[in-house]
Amino acid sequence: MENIKEIKVADLRAEAAALSEGGKHPLSAMFGRDETALGKGYAIYVVFEIPEEKRMQILKTALPADGDLRYESLTPILPAAAWYEREIQDMFGLVPAGHPDPRPLVLHETFPKDFHPLRKRASKVDSPRAKAGEESEIRMSVAHGEGIYEVPVGPIHAGIIEPGHFRFSQAGESMLQLDAKLFFTHRGLEKVMEGKTPQEALPVVERICGACSIANTWSFCQAIEKIAGVTIPKRAQIIRTLLMEIERITNHIGDCGNIPAGVGFAPAISLGGRTKEMMMRLQERLAGNRFLRGVIIPGGVAMDIDAGLQQDIRETLLKAEKNMADLAKMFAEQENFQNRINTTGIVRHQTAVDLAMVGVGARASSFAHDSRRDFDYGCYPALEFAVVTQKSGDVAARLAVRIEEFRESLRMVSQLLDMLAVDETALGVEITKAAGEDWGISESARGSNFHYVALDSDGRIDRIFVRSASYPNWPALPIAVQGDIIPDFPLINKSFELCYACLDR
Where are the domains of the chain? Predict the structure, then answer.
């Protein structure tokens, strides 16, 4: 893997600060790896994006397995590192000394304190539980003072929703503070994929998130293809890019129908839901399933999009375009809706930069983070498209970004269909067994999805790390709600469209 710099653990903080350049180079990921089977210790990878050079720069440091497992926390100088460091502590037992919030992140109260599931000696089948009376207590962070009270929400919710516990500190109706406890249904997918071939792991990767099957699979396959040293044919690149934009369109339509659910705007909910269903049925015609699974494979794609399906895409998107225009008109003309979304749930530009936010959440706060522009993959370098941004950072801005990005995606799909109609290259190339490590990235509807894959000498997965788009954006939610009224929480939450399953990987 290129652009990896191995450094001493004592130099990690200084090197990271210098490489970040005050947020100019966003922290894309930070993760651990157990290298004891290689005769080494535990490694920490810190991954920065260098968009002006369209590459990643990775810092790697090692801690001895039988020595001091502490290192100087990066969080005080890089707020975006906060969750990563807490997860590394849970999964590997590497301690970020000086971390401002060292509470467990992934492992809840019932896990024994000395259990770290991503260490090699941790069994995939064991289900360890703390002994009676030894359960730890993870305290929620709340505000204190006269007239302040707590409002607990979840982890079991009234609707069909994944579990998450939210603890609000209130003064009247105003939210002063929010602490969120997540990771209730962690599936251990990274551990499950250890020892599997890329082909065996592919169905798991496709199911990390129901809304981001193409994005996760594409990032994973990019890493595998880099390790194998292959370049996939142009037609496969066109189809991958086309399906990525169709997946984005489907999700943006769904989000535009879901956000008004936070205020009970029934006509908009109905139109958005009906239009998303239309797109889901298109996806089923393209892939044989509603989630576009089974199309992207290491080395290319498993199926073609013929002339009939190309015409189907054009006709379906014409209908979707009309419905989205009607939806945007409804939003603009409903004064009460505008009153609820403007100046609500603000994330300021500097906050977005500090947290290395991605996707709509970042771009609505004028942080133009978009992997389609910042990295060369797929057909994006050959496409004409604009990175859509807004300045206000509120619910209205996040909604506006989605509406305009929908239009940009329509233009991209039209260009891609024109390319597909005249391209006659193959759908894939053979992937040979290879050892090595590399990364892949793709821009989902929520933002960039990052995958790191390390293959052993048998071509099997030694380590896989998945950073979904929701992961860097969840920490922004407690900041966005501050000062708003508690009835606005569902609206603010839906405007980010954060996924729980993406965390519980």
Answer: 1-121, 194-480
Domain 194-480 class, CATH top level: mainly alpha
- Is 502 annotated in a binding site? The answer is yes
Beta-carbon contacts of 145 under 8 Å, excluding residues fewer than 6 positions away, are none
Residue 408 labelled as part of a binding site = no
Q: What is the 3-state secondary structure (H, E, C) of 194-263?
A: CCCCHHHHHHHHHCCCCCCHHHHHHHHHHHHHHHHCCCCCHHHHHHHHHHHHHHHHHHHHHHHHHHHHHH
CATH of domain 1-121: 3.30.460.80
Please, what sign has the CA dihedral across residues 66, 69, 71, 74?
A: positive
Strand runs labelled E in 126-195? 148-153, 165-171, 174-181
* Neighbour count for residue 329 (Cβ, 10 Å): 10
- pLDDT mean across residues, the chain: 94
User: Which residue numbers in the chain have pLDDT < 70?
Assistant: 124-127, 129-135
Residue 158 CB: number of other CB atoms within 10 A? 7
> Going by C-beta distance under 8 Å and a sequence separation of 6 or more, which residues neighbour residue 100?
73, 75, 76, 82
Q: Rounded to an integer, what distance in angstroms lies between the CA atom of residue 480 and that of residue 66? A: 42
Pairing relationship of beta strands 300-301 and 296-297 according to DSSP bridges: antiparallel
- Please report, as a single letter, which amino acid is at residue 204: V
Q: Judge if 1-121 and 194-480 fold alike in CATH terms.
A: no
132-166 confidence digits (pLDDT tens): 555 677 788 888 888 899 999 888 887 777 889 99
> What's the confidence (pLDDT) of residue 126?
63
Determine how many CB atoms are found less than 10 A away from the CB of residue 52: 9
256 is in an annotated binding site: no
Residues 6 or more apart whose CB falls under 8 angstroms from that of 94 comprise 32, 42, 44, 63, 69, 70, 71, 88
In the numeric block, which tokens belong to residue 5? 């710099």
Cα gap 348→482, rounded to integer Å = 12
- The answer on whether 499 is annotated among ligand-binding residues is yes
